Amino acid sequence: MTDKKALLVIDMQNDYLWAERKPMFSYDTDILVKSVNDTIAQHKASGEDIIYIGQVFPNIFTNRLIIGFSIKGSKGAELYSGLDVVSQLYFEKYLPNTFTSKCFKEHLSQNTYSTFTICGLDLCGCVGATAEGALRTGAEVFLDEKSTGCRFSAHKAQKRKTELINKGVKFI
């Protein structure tokens, strides 16, 4: 395996962070975005690939009605305007685990990473699922806790953190 490293910035999208978001997305946008931007700058300065991942749901009537966020092609599904975008590496996913994305898998077929650092949204959702997917590649996996949001209870967040640590994810 190569020594190539990547920072995966997960689901930092308008529908989760802007003022018009659904109440269930209770993240402190200013603090989280500042921390993620600092993490991006640090990893970019180290020469790592910065890869942005966006959760999208197909733009069909039932998804617009029942889910109502991250609908493919909508303004809400776009990366948050306050996020520092420093690369063109952007991939959409339909499932929580980024490693299920066909386009991302194509990128991985051309790029082998020894280390993934993961941040963004949400520890108990897509960040955790992506960390598990990254472990399956054989890479070393870090989760940047200060740059990862969680909308769930402290108890649920701690339980998920413990699960990920037990599987081999290193929290930094």
Describe it.
By secondary structure, this protein is α/β, with parallel strands linked by helices. The protein has one domain: 3-Layer(aba) Sandwich (Rossmann fold). 35% of the residues lie in helices and 21% in strands. A six-stranded parallel sheet has the order 3-2-1-4-5-6. Helix 3 links the parallel strand 2 and strand 3. The longest helix has 17 residues. The radius of gyration is 15 Å and the shape is globular.
Please count the helical segments: 6
Shape category: globular
Question: Domains counted in the coordinates: how many?
Answer: 1
Share of helix among residues? 25-40%
Rg, Cα atoms, Å: 15 Å
Superfamily (CATH H level) name: Isochorismatase-like
| Uncertain runs | none
Structural class: alpha/beta
Brief summary of the model shown:
This is Isochorismatase. By secondary structure, the chain is α/β, with parallel strands linked by helices.
Question: Key terms for this structure?
Answer:
Isochorismatase-like_sf; 6 strands; hydrolase activity; 172 residues; alpha/beta; Isochorismatase
